[in-house]
Amino acid sequence: MRPRISDELARRQLLQCQLCEHRCLANRSAGERGPCQALTEARVFRQRVEWGEESELIPSHLFYLSGCDLRCAFCIAEANAFDPLRGTVLTADFLRQAIPKGRAQGAKNIQWVGGEPTIHIPAILSAMAGIDDLPPVVWKSDFYGTPEAFELLDGVVSVFVPDFKFGNDECAQRIAGVPRYFGVVTRNLRLAAKQADVIVRHLLLPEHWDCCFVPICEWLLREMPTVKLSLRDGYLPMWQARQHADLSQLLKPGIGDRAREWATRLGLNVIR
Ligand code: SF4
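A: This is the predicted complex of the input protein with iron/sulfur cluster.
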């Protein structure tokens, strides 16, 4: 079934943008740029079918969009994530040509990733509105969007994959440069769970067991005890990670399995 796609409503956001919790009110249609640096176009810097996602999502056709509202010091996409002018402009024609190729490789969904797709909701909705046989839509996000942004995605997204990165505001401010992180992300998790299936992802960070991993698990156990939790242990000290003593290390061997066992014993629904 073709989803409800309110691309016109979304475009109005670009006059006074409040798509993410920076709420900078940039008039992106007039060339103003907020912290994310994005204008009105979204650009795809990579697209391919991948098998490295959670087992229930693969094979998945991922579309990587440049531009992001966070500045995580350990970002593996680095310049591609932070420069929204990188890549090919996303249009309905671009999607119309790409989707069949993904299908031919077995992709069972399309997945919007970044950078951060939320800052590009108007362009994504506009492109998808031109596709008749749209596959199920997966939305992998930092979840720093606003309720207004999530409203635009209601009825459009089949599976949300929030990257729940930090278990407290101090780590988020120091490492990703954003305030009020924990309250924003947990509010959005509740919103997303009312709209679609949710798979919470957490990338384990070196030295962040007590301050991030444990509080995230405890919050999930309290508020969303049956939600699927995917714990990732592929951390690499990329971009500016070496400016932080904690982030300049690799994870200790076996920490991924230890985390999965710990979260499972706690009672969480840990998936692979
Ligand atoms: S998405 Fe970009 S322009 Fe919009 S509020 Fe966030 S930082 Fe500002």
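Residues 220 and 227 are 8 Å apart (CA to CA). The chain is about 35% helix and 15% strand.
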